[in-house]
Amino acid sequence: MGNNKLICDCNMRWFQQYFQRLDNKDSEEFCFGTASTHKIKISDFKPDWWQCDNNTTKVAVSAGGVVLFICFIAGIIYYARWDIRFAFVIRFGWRCCAKKPQDADVNLVKIFDAFVSYSLLDTAWVAAELIPNLENDEQFNFRLCVHERNFLPGNSIVESVEGAMDGSYCVIFWITQNFLESEVCDFELNLAKTKLFGGSIRSVIFIFEERFDKIQLPQPMGIMIRHCQCLYWPDLRLRKRDIFWKRLKLALLENRPKEN
């Protein structure tokens, strides 16, 4: 090779193959490292596996593929998270997500899954959407307490509402512009806040007909929505409606007592 200095890199591998074919044990050739003048015998030069044959690119592509696959799976799980959770409840039963009885439940007889608070001007939605989709579910048999059907005649509105909340595990609020302008609904909201923080009811679920500005919401609601579940009535797309009802049913199931 004369006085030519050979650099130890991936291009030297064909020299190694060449000398192996010559099988000349008396002849020794050396190459030099790129960062030093240290001589390395060509037959002893062994580059790192990732340096040659575009292995670095292969590793990068493989790692990128794994990351994209994980992101793809995570995206599917996120998109179908409510379907997965609902299927889990269907498979193992609602008791797997139920809560243990609270101290305040001991002296209260709960006969309803939820008391529904709404403006009487919005009765149509409650009758056409909420009641059929929940009470006609033969698997879970939800029971709702509504004004027109379950309030006893002769009792005051205060007694009726308080008794209905005490007999329910949670309260569902159907929030519309009519609700925000109703004094009765405002009373029910304040009473629910008292009972929620006092432990008489387990949770409050807000269903908003539309997205209201925070300044439109009464102060008790502004406090409660930070601690309660909020759902929004979706448009007519079937997928969104299906997810809405699954989320609402799961929220109601979580409030049922877990049997010992």
Describe this structure in words.
- The protein is an alpha/beta fold.
- It has two domains: 10-44, no CATH class; 80-255, Toll/interleukin-1 receptor homology (TIR) domain (Rossmann fold, 3-Layer(aba) Sandwich).
- Helices cover 45% and strands 12% of the residues.
- It has ten helices and seven strands.
- The protein has a five-stranded parallel β-sheet, sandwiched between helices.
- α9 links the parallel β6 and β7.
- It is rod-shaped.
- The model is unreliable at 94-98 and 103-107 (pLDDT under 50).
Question: What's the layout of helices and strands?
Answer:
Layout: H1 13-22, E1 30-32, E2 39-41, H2 55-79, H3 81-92, E3 112-117, H4 123-135, E4 144-145, H5 147-150, H6 157-166, E5 168-175, H7 177-180, H8 183-198, E6 203-208, H9 219-224, E7 229-232, H10 238-255
Parallel strand pairs: 3-4, 3-5, 5-6, 6-7
Antiparallel strand pairs: 1-2
Helix pairs in contact: 3-10, 6-8
